[in-house]
Amino acid sequence: MNAIESMISICRTHARSVKRWRDGQMALRCCAAGMVEAGTQFRRVNGHLHLRSLPDMLEKVTQTADSTVHDEAITAA
User: What mean pLDDT is predicted for residues 40-54?
Assistant: First the structure.
């Protein structure tokens, strides 16, 4: 189960106790409360400490890929 499905499931469980919805604002508050509850149950992403350097690494990879020249002739059968 991915994180979004887990959050939706926890929000449903949290909202199950409501017997009568007064208005849309009440539904939004209940949904937000369920999301906060779900957030406490999420675990950290593996490698989260390296996410700050990700844009720099992607830029380096993109520059390397752009500098590679393919001048071989391609023949199709």
Answer: 79
